[in-house]
Amino acid sequence: MQKHINKQLDVIKMTTSEDPSIDIIAKAYFTRYNVMNLLFETSKVNHLKKLEYTDSSIQNTINFKFRKTLYRLVDKFITNPDNTNQYNF
Q1: Are residues 6 and 38 in the same domain?
Q2: Count of alpha carbons within 13 Å of 64, Cβ hemisphere only?
Q3: Tens digits of residue pLDDT in 28-38
Q4: What is the pTM of this model?
Q5: Greater confidence, 14 or 2?
Q6: Within this chain, do residues 26 and 42 fall inside the same structural domain, yes or no?
Q7: Are residues 58 and 84 in the same domain?
């Protein structure tokens, strides 16, 4: 199986490149999943869980960024409450 994977063009590009791009790496791993008959979606979910990218952590990050932006806009308004500022919510 390893010999068959190493003969794939995308894998060869990744292994011979000194600094492979994200696109090359992704294509090589996708080729590996296909050769090994692995489900890409299942593997993706498992890898994201290992990196602690769960639905709740992603939602927490979005909430944090929203609050941070909102607080920044409110602080800007409080420090300079003139009518020329545009706030799109």
Answers
A1: yes
A2: 6
A3: 888 888 888 87
A4: 0.44
A5: 14
A6: yes
A7: yes
